[in-house]
Amino acid sequence: MLLSVLALLLPACTGNKVPDPVEDDTAAPLPLPTERCGFTPATDLDPADDVVAIELEQAPFQWDPGTGTLLTDGLAYNGEIPGPVIEVEVGQTLRTDFTNGLDYDSTVHWHGLRVPEEMDGAIRMMDMVPAGGTFAYEFTIQDAGFYWYHPHMATEQDLERGLYGRIVARHPDEPRVDCDLPVVLDDILLDEDTQQIAPKDTDHMQLMGRLGNLLMANGRSDRRVEVKAGETMLLRLVNAANARYFNLTLEGQAMRVVASDGGWLGEEVPVDNLVLGPGERAIVAVDWTGAPGDELRLMNARFRLHDDDAHMSEYDPMGEGENPVMTFVIGDEAGTPTPMTLPTDDLPAFTGDEPVAHTWVLDEEMKAGIVTIDGYSYPDVPPVMVMGDMPTGFVVQNDSEMHHPFHLHGNRFQVLTVDGVAPAVGGWKDTIDVPPFGTVELASQLDNPGEWMFHCHILEHAELGMAGFFMVE
Question: Is pLDDT above 70 for 236?
Answer without folding.
Answer: yes
